[in-house]
Specification:
heterotetramer, B: mainly alpha, Fumarate Reductase Iron-sulfur Protein, Chain B, domain 2, 2 domains, 11 helices, globular, D: alpha/beta, Rossmann fold, FAD/NAD(P)-binding domain, five-stranded parallel β-sheet, 34 strands, about 30% helix, binds flavin-adenine dinucleotide, binds iron/sulfur cluster, FAD/NAD-bd_sf (chain D), Heterodisulfide reductase subunit A (chain D)
Chain lengths: ~280, ~180, ~160, ~675
């Protein structure tokens, strides 16, 4: 089976292990993820912070390319890209004027009918049912699931999971044998795009998250967003110096955790690319 | 902008009727960055409600609008369903437009600019380029020197940018949406 | 002054709100133009729009329809029915070649004596400016020929 | 041929100062069908009325038009006078020459001309008047009260004490409603059960009250004065006549872990149970959904131990029908349940509870015998956070209204907590303190000033648990909207008051209107607060909107007064201004085509279906019929009827047409 794939910039750079593990996981379930040809950056926070039209046009090009390539469904693992793409498509569809304007900017027709799936939706739709049979090495660890702020919001547009206290990731983790714990920071913000410009804020916000996880004895924090991952993982030195402790709870992508459970190896899943190395794999 | 009009303009541009806010504070209570803001989100709402040009200008000059990380916590929980994130977007655009960006927030803007420049020239984010661009703009030359080598080692920072083939289309998108190159500040 | 056109205007009002409001105009001794004559109905819901058409067809220059404010209807919802049909009625008027400005739809409560005077005066001056409604004979024959069809047209699907 | 008499009044100078009354009378005399016309200084005075009566008799008048003040003022006066002279009162109409003419125009010929026109209009209408008779309906003097909370209890007692019969139905095993669950009540802090229990007992013992517990309204027919109510008596599985209430059965029942509704889930009960020790009636019922015997055919322990043989497993539901003259709706309210507060973790953290659960904790008869102990581990909480407006005033959660009672009970809760846990700290997050009422503000001030409740103005964004503490993240909007974090042991949500489950269905059964939140709607918010739009059905208490006990009891007594007023007559007299469906030319035929547009139009459900049968008894067609008991005479149906088959007496199509034509005819 073939489904479209939009990696986005992070997955090509800082978060290449997320792309790696997503592709590997799909392959393990006989799904071929086809990259959208000549895709561009979605504009992320930057565009939408300072130029609304640009923030719509950049994702629109991606969607238009997918349509051109005949893709009806695309998987977007980065929660930020997923959010931007979904919101842009929603806005285009509810506002015909904007749709026309965007088509004019792009010099390309756009339908606005592509199904956009985040990694969770992708797993739930195509993999979840078959997981139990495939688990060879149950992921028997205590974990907390960190959804971040973008995966479930804005809820009236995304319509994904429960707004407060979402459960889909927790359910998946339980399926692969993990103990998924209740905690206080499921959907609190990690500092998102401030990673470089306001590292102090990221250290504080991500610090609270990491601390709560570690206080509760989590062996890993499970995420589905490269931005969350890099803030919690790559910024760990900042976090630790802010907290004045040394927390070594690793931050794994959900695709890596599931990958391990179904027997994929460390390298395929890019585990060595994590800054805070997991002790168990 | 004339005194009477900004509430109406905001409503027209963002759909947010600032007068719907009844100052419960739930947004500020849940906002990730409220304690770092000069005006927490519910205060921003109150200031705009006054329909007072001074207060409007204070918001445009505030750090708050740049500190907002668009996490949507406020909108998610606001009993009145007020779309503060969109309002913040709008205020940032306005603030840029009239050149009253908060001094302490120049770094945040520099980062956004550097980011967009990377996208403008390559169609994608080129992270080394981004960091380099940001450093030039923010003059924070030493920042992240400790992280970068680790990233190289782990194969997370490609040396050469990936480039979109249809660069023309990308630069068209930028020029047509009015996102002009600002150059290092 | 004497040569000025004096329009004939019929007001269709409900008993509970506007009729009482007009009574209050009187009790408060607020003066208004004497062109308007009030016909009392139990409720605006009772006001059959065929009756309004017939008023036009028989030489009325203008019409006022007034009842209780939304939610204040003595009979809970009669005025909502009236309001819903008003939308259909406008297009019908148009179809018959009657300027919709010749009819004024208003809400006047029992406490709004002054408002009633304003509405009357305002309507009288509007109609005075529009001049007499002269095509009424045409409307009359049209109505006579199409009465059943028109009645059907006015039916409101729920 | 009609013989109309026209009487023009001067009203001293009120009319004659601007209208030439003599001229009006003269012109009126020339109108076709007018037999006699005159003018007089004061028509409503005794001599004026005598003048009318004499003219009716002498001239044999068939109709009367009085050109005077507003009919809203003197129509009854003149109609009465006409009736005294032997003329049907509904053949008398008034032309409003004062409020609509002399008082609003200056003296001039046009004013007099307008007066003449106004008289012409009413003459035209009166000529088409038909003699009508006031509608008389006999009244069954027995009231049905639905719901046995404090509202239903109060209404029942008031009606019964006036010597009228009452049937009270309560769907639960016991009467008492929410008030029986409360600890102490604001603003006086008297013990709820202490003031309620005597009234419950009085209901049970009152000779004029028949109490059906465990019963619900099945269906309702008829109209004011003559309703027919079918009541479902749900099978109790216990014969109340033989049962002595000894309690052996429930002490032996093996099913002991059923969350008790009375204790708001904080305590357990058995399958055979009375909700609480002071229940009225104090006889158990078996909860079939939880009883072992009904679930898997085994057990019957209760039957074995019952000394009187009262257990009756196989007795089915029973339907009874009662004739009823008036109904009082008193079905109360409910509090918002879980899942509405995922951000507060309600349903997830056992120590996040509702106000109603707090009442049970604070109540001497509750699961903790009145000690404030948190549900998770039974510890006495040292820090309690109260969150006001939980769900209320929150359009995002679908409840934009203020629940009215929670500000007060939250102050009470903080106060009770401080009284019971002296060293404890209480925090109240609020948006506004709504304490309008006698001694209410003083009560709240006491909680703050004397008992030290910490009031913080702002909402709470979320609550999560950590190390056995509930972390409450709120804000203090009076301190620059900076976030506030409190590590609490227990969180109490002042959850919104909402309509009772089943309210919508009940309203539809009874043709009572309800608002978007499914609270029953009063006929007029200010002037008919205890009436519904359906004549003969009244309402009181929290089924109308969240209400505290003082308001509940006042409306209950108000509704009872309406019922007693209605029952003080043997017959009901109503104006005959109602709709009728024509049955001309012969009784068998009607132009009605049975489209029932009228039915969709009628706000009172007054349109019924009637079958017309031929001599062989076969149904020829179904036509509309108006129930004169329900029709209020709005006439909306008339303008909906395409075949002009339904018309309204006193405001008929013909009459309204004639009146309009009279204005336009020159
Ligand atoms: C937490 C809390 C604290 C409170 N504290 C106070 C206080 O301190 N002081 C104060 O004045 N007020 C207080 N109140 C308000 C008080 O509870 C209400 O004013 C009162 O209970 C309303 O009485 P009611 O009879 O209208 O409704 P309810 O008490 O709700 O009674 C309604 C009754 O009708 C029955 N019923 C429902 N539907 C049907 C049906 N279809 N057929 C038959 N029966 C039916 C129900 O079983 C119930 O018995 C408090 C309320 C709450 C929630
Ligand atoms: C400014 C204002 C605005 C208001 N607006 C609203 C509103 O918008 N909506 C609303 O619902 N309510 C409103 N109210 C409240 C409303 O006015 C009262 O609820 C209502 O008037 C109370 O009626 P009452 O008959 O109890 O008292 P009152 O209206 O005070 O009537 C008492 C009567 O008793 C007479 N009287 C007094 N003493 C004696 C005596 N010893 N012997 C004989 N007769 C006596 C008095 O002369 C008076 O006629 C408003 C009130 C105010 C002050
Ligand atoms: S949560 Fe909404 S209503 Fe409350 S203060 Fe913030 S914007 Fe205003
Ligand atoms: S979207 Fe902005 S204002 Fe709203 S909670 Fe997040 S950071 Fe605060
Ligand atoms: S009948 Fe009316 S108008 Fe005539 S005197 Fe009496 S109050 Fe005045
Ligand atoms: S044991 Fe029998 S008599 Fe006693 S309470 Fe139970 S049913 Fe009634
Ligand atoms: S039969 Fe049912 S009610 Fe009776 S004792 Fe057994 S479980 Fe309890
Ligand atoms: S009574 Fe108080 S707590 Fe309850 S909804 Fe109204 S304002 Fe909120
Ligand atoms: S609208 Fe007229 S024709 Fe139709 S059912 Fe009613 S009375 Fe009969
Ligand atoms: S007059 Fe009004 S209440 Fe009577 S039947 Fe017609 S619509 Fe119903």
């Amino acid at each position: 089976m073939e489904i479209g794939f939009y990696p986005g910039c992070s997955l090509k750079g800082t978060s290449s292990e997320y792309a790696q593990s997503t592709l590997a996981l799909a392959k393990a379930f006989d799904i071929n993820l086809v990259e959208i040809e000549d895709w561009n950056c979605c504009g992320a926070t930057a565009a939408h912070n300072i130029n609304h039209e640009l923030a719509t046009a950049l994702p629109a090009r991606i969607l238009a390319l997918a349509e051109k390539q005949g893709l009806t469904e695309i998987v977007v693992p980065c929660a930020a890209c997923y959010n931007r793409l979904t919101v842009a498509q929603h806005e285009i569809n509810k506002n015909p004027e904007l749709k026309a304007r965007v088509a004019e900017i792009l010099q390309m027709p756009i339908e606005g009918k592509v199904q956009i799936l985040n990694v969770m939706q992708f797993i739930l739709k195509y993999i979840s049912d078959k997981i139990t049979d495939k688990v060879t090495k149950p992921f028997e660890h205590k974990v907390v699931c960190y959804y971040g702020c973008l995966l479930v919001r804005p809820h009236d547009i995304l319509q994904f999971d429960r707004l407060e206290d979402p459960q889909s990731m927790d359910d998946l983790m339980r399926k692969i044998g993990a103990t998924s714990m209740d905690w206080g920071y499921k959907t609190e913000c990690c500092g998102a795009g401030f990673s470089v410009s306001r590292t102090d804020i990221v250290a504080k916000l991500s610090g609270r998250i990491v601390k709560d996880a570690s206080d509760r004895g989590a062996e890993a924090i499970i995420v589905a967003c490269p931005m969350c991952q890099s803030n919690l993982d790559m910024r760990r030195p900042h976090i630790n110096s802010y907290l004045q402790t040394k927390i070594e709870t690793p931050v794994l992508y959900i695709t890596q955790a599931i990958g391990l459970a179904v027997g994929l190896d460390r390298d395929t899943l890019g585990l060595k690319k994590l800054f805070v190395a997991p002790s168990f794999a | 902008m004339e005194k009477q009009g900004y509430i109406t303009t905001i409503k027209g541009k963002t759909g947010v009727n600032v007068n719907r806010c009844y100052q419960c504070g739930k947004c500020s209570a849940g906002c990730a960055v409220a304690e770092d803001m000069d005006y927490p989100p519910s205060m921003v709402m109150r200031m705009l409600q006054t329909n007072d040009e001074d207060n409007y200008q204070s918001v445009l000059k505030s750090e708050s609008i740049w500190l907002c990380v668009s996490c949507q916590n406020c909108l998610t929980r606001c009993p009145m369903q007020i779309d503060i994130p969109s309002l913040m977007d709008y205020m940032r655009e306005k603030s840029l437009e009239q050149n009253s960006v908060n001094k302490k927030s120049k770094n945040i803007l520099s980062f956004h600019r550097a980011f967009l420049d990377s996208v403008r020239y390559t169609g994608r984010l080129y992270e080394i380029g981004l960091v380099a661009g940001y450093k030039v703009r923010s003059l924070k030359l030493l920042q992240d020197m400790n992280v970068a080598p680790g990233m190289f080692m782990k194969g997370k920072l490609p040396i050469l940018p990936e480039v979109v083939k249809d660069k023309k289309q990308i630069s068209n998108i930028f020029s047509k949406t009015g996102e002009v190159h600002s150059g290092p500040k | 002054m004497n040569n000025e056109f004096e329009p004939k205007i019929v007001a269709f009002v409900c008993n509970w709100c506007t009729y009482a409001g007009a009574d209050l105009t009187g009790t408060s001794r607020i003066k208004y133009a004497s062109n308007v004559k009030i016909v009392r109905f139990p409720c605006t819901g009772r006001i059959d729009f065929m009756l309004l058409l017939k008023a036009f067809a028989n030489g009325s220059d203008g019409i006022i329809v007034s009842g209780c404010h939304p939610n204040d209807c003595h009979y809970t919802s009669g005025n909502f029915h009236a309001r819903r049909r008003w939308i259909l009625f406008r297009s019908l008027l148009d179809f018959m070649g009657i300027d919709v400005n010749r009819i004024r739809f208003a809400w006047v409560s029992a406490a709004e004596g002054a408002k009633w005077a304003d509405i009357v005066n305002d309507t009288v001056s509007t109609i005075r400016e529009m001049g007499p409604y002269t095509e009424y004979r045409k409307a009359a024959s049209f109505l006579a020929e199409n009465e059943v069809e028109l009645a059907k047209e006015m039916e409101v699907p729920q | 041929m009609s013989k109309i008499g026209v009487f023009i009044c001067h009203c001293g100078e009120n009319i004659s100062a601007t209208v030439d009354c003599k001229k009006v009378a003269q012109e009126a005399a020339n109108i076709e069908g007018v037999e006699f016309a005159t003018d007089y200084k004061y028509m409503c005075s005794d001599p004026g009325q005598t003048m009318i009566k004499e003219a009716i008799k002498e001239k044999g008048l068939t109709g009367v038009v009085i050109g005077a003040c507003s009919p809203r003022m003197h129509e009854p006066t003149f109609r009465k006078a006409c009736a005294e002279a032997g003329l049907n009162p509904y053949m008398c109409e008034m032309s409003n020459l004062r409020e609509h003419c002399s008082w609003v125009h200056d003296k001039s010929d046009t004013t007099t001309e307008k007066a003449i026109d106004l008289v012409k209009m009413l003459v035209a209408k009166t000529k088409l008047d038909k003699p009508l008779n006031a509608i008389k309906v006999p009244i069954t003097k027995k009231a049905l009260v639905i719901g046995g909370g404090i509202a239903g209890i109060q209404a029942s007692l008031d009606i019964a004490n006036a010597g009228k019969q009452v049937i009270l139905i309560e769907r639960e095993p016991s009467i008492g409603g929410h008030m029986s669950q409360l600890s102490e009540t604001f603003p006086t802090l008297d013990c709820s059960q202490c003031i309620l229990t005597p009234r419950m007992v009085e209901v049970a013992q009152h000779p004029n009250i028949t109490l059906y517990n465990y019963a619900e309204l099945e269906s309702l027919d008829g109209s004011i004065g003559n309703f027919k109510a079918t009541i479902r008596l749900k099978a109790k599985s216990v014969d109340p006549k033989t049962c002595t209430g000894c309690g052996i059965c429930w002490s032996k029942c093996p099913k002991k872990k059923i969350p008790s509704e009375f204790n708001a889930g904080l305590g357990m009960r058995t399958a055979i149970y009375t909700p609480f020790p002071q229940a009225v009636p104090n006889k158990p019922v078996i909860d079939k959904a939880n009883c072992n015997y009904y679930l898997n055919g085994k057990c019957k322990v209760c039957e074995k131990v019952c000394p009187t043989g009262a257990i009756a497993f196989d007795k089915p539901d029973e339907l009874i029908t009662e004739d009823i003259g008036a109904i009082v709706l008193a079905t109360g309210f409910d509090v918002l349940k879980p899942d509405f507060f995922p951000e507060y973790g309600y349903g997830k953290y056992p120590d996040v509870i509702t106000g109603l659960q707090f009442e049970r904790l604070a109540s001497a008869s509750g699961p903790t015998l009145g000690e404030i102990r948190r549900p998770s581990d039974g510890k006495i909480p040292q820090k309690v956070v109260f969150i006001a407006c939980a769900g209320s005033r929150d359009p995002a959660k679908g409840i934009p209204y203020c629940s009215k009672i929670c500000c007060m009970y939250t102050a009470k809760h903080a106060m009770l907590y401080q009284h019971k846990v002296h060293e404890g700290e209480s925090y109240v997050f609020y948006m506004d303190i709504r304490a309008g009422g006698k001694n209410y503000e003083e009560f709240v001030r006491r909680a703050i000033e004397d008992d030290g409740a910490n009031y913080i103005r702002g909402r709470v964004a979320r609550v999560y648990e950590k190390d056995g503490k509930l972390i409450v993240r709120g804000v203090d909007t009076l301190m620059g909207a900076k976030p506030v974090e409190i590590e609490a042991d227990m969180v109490v949500l002042a959850s919104a008051g909402v309509s009772n489950c089943g309210a919508e269905e009940l309203a539809q059964k009874m043709h009572v209107s309800y608002d978007p939140y499914k609270f029953f709607a009063e006929a007029h918010p200010k002037l008919k607060p205890v009436e519904t739009n359906t004549a003969g059905i009244y309402l009181c208490g929290a089924c109308q909107a969240p209400k505290d006990i003082p308001d509940t009891v006042s409306t209950a007594s108000g509704a009872a007064a309406k019922v007693i007023g209605l029952f003080s007559n043997d017959e009901l007299t109503r104006e005959p201004i109602i709709a009728v469906v024509n049955r001309i030319p012969s009784h068998d035929v009607s132009t009605c085509v049975g489209c029932f547009m009228c039915e969709t139009a009628c706000p009172y459900q007054a349109i019924e279906h009637e079958e017309i049968k031929n001599r062989q008894g076969e149904v020829i067609k179904t036509v509309a019929r108006v129930n004169p008991g329900l029709c209020q005479g709005c006439g909306t149906c008339v303008s909906f009827c395409r075949s002009k088959s339904i018309d309204i007496q006193g405001f008929s199509n013909e009459q309204m047409y004639a009146e309009v034509m009279a204005v336009l005819a020159d």
